[in-house]
Amino acid sequence: MSAVFLMLMGLGAMALGYFIYSKFICEKIFQVDPNFRTPAHQLQDGVDYVPTNKYILWGHHFTSVAGAAPILGPAIAVIWGWVPAFLWVVFGTIFFAGVHDAGAIWASSRNKARSIGALTGEIVGNRARSIFMIVIFLVLLMVNAVFAVVIANQLINFPSATLPVWGAIVVALIIGQLIYRKIIGLLMVTILGVTALYGMIYLGPMLPFSLPTETVLGLTDRQSWIVLLFVYAAIASLLPVWALLQPRDYINGIQLFIGLGLLYGAVLLASPDVVAPAFNSDVPEGTPSIIPLLFVTIACGAISGFHGLVASGTTSKQLDKEPDLRFVGYFGAVGEGALALAAIIAVSAGFATLADWQAIYHNFGEGGVAAFTRGGANILEQGLGLDTVMAQTLLTVMVVLFAGTTMDTGLRLQRYIFQEWGSIYRIGWMQKTLPATLLAVGCCLLLAFGAGGDGAGGMLIWPLFGTTNQLLAGLTLLVITVMLVKLGRPMWYTLAPLLFLLCMTTLGLLIQLKSFYDKGDWFLFTLDLVILAAAILVILEASSALTKQIKANKAAVSKP
């Protein structure tokens, strides 16, 4: 089968989802109001609460949620065959991710841009809030610590990407000033920013840069990159959003769509055949069951709880007009779905033969970013005639920039968590920006170096990311569903995805629990038990909250 068919079917379905289904959800279910005064205007402070052009805000939201995960998950999940991965990405984007992301922005903006974690206490209950805050903290800890390792590895393996990756920060700082101070228009800023970024991608192979492989100040090259990344992320999280976060995310969003355009254009021109099996009946020994693991292996690109954190943590604070949440939230999910689809095509059709594909996918967990870079570069070379090094640099920069923007936002969100804890437990110093940021960085570095020694400690708990992340998505959908019930609006558009996720997450945790027990991995076994207990409590809280609200609604209607 030609990969062109996958591309057209996938993109076509997601486009219909945006133009038809998202319009219905936002207008009939969420009932967005163009006259509603958003928190960005109510609480405007020039730092976190900043009314923002919807295209720039889309860039921030999209690139914050589109890290390495929408590439990593699908590039691993094709081991079960490309059809299951394709169907989950496409239908998950339309009926799960888009509704979840737009709904999280809506719920937060209707409640003074409070995070989903903070909203849970008021809407569902304090016990649910406590569970939510712990799950959020774990997810952010995993994302920040692991993405630092992913970026460091890519910079070591592809030194040609170093110049454009770090140069993009300088470009973003300049763009931020140009936009915020209204020196020139958005179109010209976009053209200049993209030109500068791609100019550095062109120069990257000519000016490769690597840190010394021998230890410097007691640190290896990977350890040094990880420390530098966290220093940068800490500074970025302290700056006003307009200075670096918004422009960096916006220009990264534009370059991703250009990169996707190049990759999809190469697919059209080269028309490569899909060599991976549609359904892999000969999976390697040790590969877990496709159900439920498919639905937690592919999170970003179908539905991801991390998106709810971004939507309610930073995006809702910058929403200019409420109807913008359809473009920012739902179309942001469509953009990530398109990235996940590109990853599926790259790792399914980017190899010459089935034997070449099987040489990569000989164990569960193989493939990932490396398979995407290799397969995608092959397609770019065949379709557009790009030099292999240039093609790999282009794709590596794409991966690293998105992982980096996710770290930027993730650390800022982790700072918000500490500040919210400070507010809940009345710890004054924890409510301040700098101490909360230092706590966030300290926890990430403690996991990175305390658990791993070499800076890769985050990988220790990464096996539980998928289930924890989907539990978080379920919690977000629970908050949205209860809000809809309180307003007397149809709830099944969010309740059905909520029930599905809770079922798959619970099954996934049980399967992983047995796996950790069989391996004698007692640390992950214990952590899995904690998350499993949280999942069960969420199910109980969901049932209780929804039942109470439905009864309250009936009682209100029955009153004369």
UniProtKB/TrEMBL annotation:
Domain CstA N-terminal: 3-348, 366-506
Highest taxon above the source species: Bacteria
Principal localisation: membrane
Keywords tagged on the record: Cell membrane, Membrane, Transmembrane, Transmembrane helix
Transmembrane segments: 6-26, 62-80, 86-109, 130-152, 158-176, 183-204, 224-245, 250-270, 290-315, 327-352, 389-413, 434-453, 459-485, 492-510, 522-540
Pfam families: CstA (PF02554)
Compartment(s) where it occurs, according to its Swiss-Prot or TrEMBL record: Cell membrane
Membrane topology type: Multi-pass membrane protein
Keyword Membrane: yes
Protein family: Belongs to the peptide transporter carbon starvation (CstA) (TC 2.A.114) family.
Protein name: Carbon starvation protein A
Lineage per the UniProt record: Bacteria, Pseudomonadati, Pseudomonadota, Gammaproteobacteria, Alkalimonas
